[in-house]
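In the laboratory, one determines a bound structure by crystallizing the protein with its ligand and collecting diffraction data. In a computational setting the workflow is compressed into a single prediction: the sequence and the ligand go in, and a structural description comes out. We illustrate the idea with zinc ion.
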Amino acid sequence: MRSRPFLLILLSHIILSTALVAQTQGSEPYDSLARQIVKEALGSNKAYEMLSDLCTNVGHRLSGSPAAAKAVQWAEKKMQELGFDNVHLEPVMVPHWVRGPFERAYVFDPSGKRENLAITALGGTIGTPKGGITAEVLEVKSFEELHKLGEKAKGKIVFFSRPMDRTLVNTFEAYGRAVDQRGAGAVEAAKVGGVAALVRSMTTRRDNVPHTGAMHYDDSVEKVPAAAVSIIGAERLSALLASGKPVRVHMEFSAQTLPDVESANVMGELRGTEKPEEVIVIGGHLDSWDKGQGANDDGAGCVQSIEALRLLKTLGLKPKRTIRAVMFMNEENGLRGGIAYAEKKRPGEKAVAAIESDMGSFQPVGFGIGDSAAYEKLLPWAPVFRFFNADHFQLGGGGADISPLAQQRVPLMDLIPEVQRYFDYHHSDNDTIEGVNERELALGAAALAIFSYIIAQEGL
Ligand SMILES: [Zn+2]
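The predicted complex, in C-alpha cell form:
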C-alpha cells in the first residue's frame, strides 16, 4: 500500500521532468550563457559601483545644469574606459529651469498659529511674487470638482489632494491616475481665478519629503506658481480644512526658466559581427530632477545599460547585431534627447528594437514588449530568465525616451522591475544610492544583457 503512492509520485515526477525538458529545450542555447551573465553581474557588482560613483561624484543632474554637463562627460568616459565601440555624444538643446536659492511655506491654522509646510516648486513653474503669496486654501480632489466650485476658487491657493490610489497593485497605474493634478493643476487653478496650485506629492511613502515633477502652462491661461507638498503636509492641511474654517497658506520660491543650453545624448555600442547595421538600443535617461541623487530615476537605468554591454564584452560574447547603450538627456522636463535621437538621420542603419530601463533599480520581473509580432517571437525565450524570477514577458511596453521611435515603427520594450517601492523615491530627496539594492540592480543589468543579446542573435 505504501509503495503505490510512491510509484505514482515517481512516475508523475518522470513525466513532469520530461515535460519540463521539452519546454525548455527551445531556450537551451542561452541557458548557460544567462547563468554566466548573472554570475558575473552579481560577482563583479560593477553596476552598483558605477551608480555610487554617479550619485556621489555627480549627484542630481537636471537638464541644463552644470551637473548634467558633468554627467555627460562621466558617461562618455565610463564607456570609453570600458572599450565600447563608437562612443560619442549627439548634441541637443535642452530647457534650463532653475529652482532658485530657497523655497518655503507655512500654514496658518484657523486661530492664526503658524506651522511649517514642506513644499517644493514643481519643475517648470514660475516663481512666486517677491515676498511670496499668502492666500486662503481651497481643497479639491479633481478638476471637475474645481470647476463646479468655480467662483469660490477666486484669489485662493488651490490644493489638489487626490492621493495615488493605494488599492491598485501597479503603482505606475496609480501614478498615472493622479499625476494630472501635478501636470495641469496650475492651468486649471488659474482658469477659475486661483492664485497658485499646491499639489499633494505623487508618492507611495508617508513622510515629510515633497516630490517634484514636471508641470506645464497653457499660453492662453495666466501663469500661476505651482508646488508640491509632502504627504504629511497634505494630510495636515486636509485635517485643518476639515474644520470648515478658513485656512491660509504662505508660499515663496524664486524658480525661473533660463535660456536653453546645449547638452547631449551619450552612446556607445558593441558592434554587431554579422549585421552591424541592425541596431538594438538599450538605455535610460541621464538627467534627473534636482533632488536626491537621481539614483532610481534614472541613474539605475543608465548604469544597467552600460553594465549590460560590459557583461557581454567581459564574457567574450560577440553579438551578431549591434547593441547600443544610449543615455538620453532631458527625459524629465522636455524629452528633447529622446526626440533628437529619433529625428537624427542614420543612413544605412536599421533599428531592430529599443529597450528602456526607467522604472527603478528593483528586482527585475521581466520585460514589456509593445509589439505583438516581437512579443510572439520573444515569448519562447522567457524560460531563460526563470532561474532568477525575471521571466514575466507581457504584451505592451516602452519608455518615454524611446517613445519618439514609435513613429518609425521600432518595436519598443522595457525592463520591468518590481514596482512597489519606486514612488517612495521618485523625484525627491529620498532618491539616493541608499534606496538601491546592489543585487537587484545587478540582476536588472543581467536581464537587460541577456534580453538584448538574444535579440541580437535571433533578430525579430
Ligand atoms: Zn525616469
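Residues 285, 297-298, 331, 358 surround zinc ion (CB under 6 Å). Keep in mind that any predicted model is a hypothesis to be tested, not a measurement.
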